[in-house]
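Hi R.,

As promised on Friday, here is the backbone we talked about, encoded as structure tokens. Could you run it through your design pipeline when you get a chance and send me back a sequence?
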């Protein structure tokens, strides 16, 4: 794989899914949301990264609440 394709694959596999969630809620492509996020990050000198991390934490927290509490015996 070319380094740029490998990097894109790595980011898409290990990202938090915030852009995908926003794209599905707004009804637009995920790539477009990522592009807007990138422009916003450069335009605000990186402060939108903080908003992204807060959204990622919130999405993970919601998924943990939906799962409920797991015990050692659950598989």
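Update: got your reply. Pasting your designed sequence below so it's all in one thread:
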């Amino acid at each position: 794989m070319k380094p740029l394709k490998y990097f894109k694959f790595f980011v898409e596999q290990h990202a938090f899914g915030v852009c995908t969630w926003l794209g599905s809620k707004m009804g637009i492509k995920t790539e477009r949301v990522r592009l807007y996020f990138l422009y916003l990050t450069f335009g605000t000198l990186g402060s939108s990264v903080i908003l992204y991390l807060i959204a990622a934490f919130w999405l993970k927290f919601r998924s943990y609440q939906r799962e409920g509490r797991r015990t050692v015996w659950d598989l």
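One thing I noticed while checking it: The two ends are 36 Å apart (CA to CA).

Thanks again,
M.
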